[in-house]
Amino acid sequence: MTKQGEPEFLVRRARTSDVPDIQKLIEPLVAQRILLGKERVVFYEAVQEFRVVTSSDGTLIGCGALHVMWEDLGEVRTLAVAEDWLGHGVGRAILNTLEADARELGLRRLFCLTFEVPFFTRNGFREIGDEIIDPIVYSEMVRSTDEGVAEFLDLARVKPNTLGNSRMLKLL
User: pLDDT category, 73, cuts 50, 70, 90?
Assistant: First the structure.
């Protein structure tokens, strides 16, 4: 909180005008191969999945997305926080909001592919193996063209994207 009792930051739905700032925020993480880079059009197509965090002066300091993958399964995507704001609760605020969104949609499980295992572990996620979905559901999901679904299913074609990442799941 600031001295006036105002919150230091605000979590809200992303707007199309936020897309350039989302890309700018994740650029350093893409350069470090922590996040996958995406074309701007992909962010516009998925803007309704994103929540952003702005500081009291309106600067975008964090983002994250919730992507529905199946009837009861969603993925936390593109969770990023500006370096100066790490350790101030921004990531946790985004994750809490995405979890509330997931519950509202009727999801019971959240997946993430991450290098940030300690953060997600502190927030109730656990590392998972390959066999977490029914074979019938697998046969349906494998038809998806979405890269995140392919990463969740641990398909060979996305292995270069997932090297070093941990596959994690949280039950809501």
Answer: very high
